[in-house]
Amino acid sequence: MHAIEKILAKAAGKTTVTTGEIVNCKVDLAGINDLYLQTVRSFFEMGGKKVYDPSKIVMFLDHYAPASTIMQADNQKQFREFCWDQGIDLLMDVDQGVCHQILADKGLVRPGMVLVVTDSHTTTHGAFGAFGTGVGATDCAIIMMTGQLWFRVPEIIRINLEGKLPKGVFAKDVILKVIGMLGADYGVYRGVEFTGPVLKELNISERMALCNMTTEMGAKTAYIQPDEITLAFLKDKVKQDYEIFTTDPGYKYAAEHTFDVSGLKPQVAAPHSVDNVFDVTEYAGKPVNQAFLGTCTGGRVEDIAVAARILKGKHINPRTRFIVVPASKGVFLEAMAKGYIQTLVEAGATFVTPGCAACLGTHQGMLANGETCITASSRNFPGRMGHNKAEIFVASPASVAAAALKGKIVNPADYLE
C-alpha cells in the first residue's frame, strides 16, 4: 500500500484498503472556518446536541478577520457562542490568522493523522505526512456528531522533482509549472505525492506551498514522505505521539511524472485560470496596480523575508500598492522580531490583519474594474479578488515583491542580491 492508503486503513480500523474502496474513518481533527456557519446549522438540523469530542474540533475565524459586514460579524458571534456552549477550547479568533498556518504553528498537525477542514486547501498538510482534505458543511457536521466520515480511497500520482532550483525560482514556481503542464483538472479526486532530490532543498514553508497548490489540480490530498526536515520542524511543536507511514516497495502509482527544475524560470499563472502558466518573462513590463503577498499559500515568514530582501532600503513604485498579509499571528511576530515588518513598512507596504484578506475577494485589498494584481495567493478566476473585470496574475512571493518595487511584472532573479 501507499502511505496515504495506510493512513486511511488505520483510521478505518482495517488491515488493507484498495483504490476506489469506500471506508469510514475516524477523524483526528476537524476544523470549521467562518465561511461555513452552515456546519453549525446542519449539526442542529440533524439532531446534534453535543459534539463528540470538543478537543478534536477547532474553529477558525480567518476568512472575515476582522468582520467587515454585519452578516460576517453575526456569523462570527454565532461561532463563538457555539464554542463556548460546547466547550470547544480551540477557538481561533480574528487575531490568529489562516487555519492552515495556525495548525502548523500550534503543533496541531502531525504525520499519519486524518485532518479535515472546511477549506479546499487542506491538502497543505501533506507537507507533514498527514492526510489532509477539505469537505463541505454537512460532512463536517457529521464529523462533529460522530467523529467519523467516509472517504473513497484515491488513486495516487507521483510527481518526481529532479535537478537544482535556479536563482529566483521557488516552490511556487515549481507547482505552477506542474499545474500548467498537467492541467487544472488532472488531479481530481487523486492523491498527489511529491518525491525527488529537490525536496531536500525545500523547507517546510516551501513544502506547504507545493502541497497547498495541488488543490488547483483538483487533488483530494497531497503527500510528502516525512524526513529529517519534517522531524526538525515537528520537534519543538508537536507534543502528541504520531506514526510515520511509508509506501511499500514496488507500489504501482496510477501515474508518474518527472520534472527537471534545473532550467526552470520564475512562473506566472495569467488570467483567468491557474493552469494558464507562462515564464514570467512573457509578461515582463505588464503594469500592476496591486501586489498581494499573503494567505495560506504565500504568507509565511520565509515569504515575507524574501520580500524584505528585495525591498530593503528601497521604496515601492508610487503607482502600485503592496498589500502584505501574514499567514498567522506567529508569522507576524517572528517577522516583526527579525525586522522584516519595519523594512517593508518603510518600503511602502500596507500590512493587514493575519488571515485570508483579499484572497477571497471580500475585504482588505479588493480590486476595481480594470485593475491588475500580482498575487502570491492561489487563484486568479474572474472576480476572485474583487471586480470581475480585474486581472489577476499568480506568482511567487519574490515575483510579487519585485513587481511592487518596479510597478510592473519583472523577473525577480534580477532583484535578489
Describe the structure in your own words.
This protein has 417 residues and is an alpha/beta fold. It has two domains: 3-240 and 251-258, Aconitase, domain 3 (2-Layer Sandwich), CATH 3.30.499.10; 267-415, 2-Layer Sandwich (Aconitase, domain 3), CATH 3.30.499. It is built from 13 helices and 18 strands. The protein has a seven-stranded mixed beta sheet with strand order 13-12-18-17-14-15-16, with helices on both faces. Strands 4-3-2-5-6 form a five-stranded parallel beta sheet. α2 links the parallel β2 and β3. α10 packs across α12 and α10 (301-311) runs parallel beside α13. The protein is globular, with a radius of gyration of 20 Å. The model has no long low-confidence stretch (mean pLDDT 97).
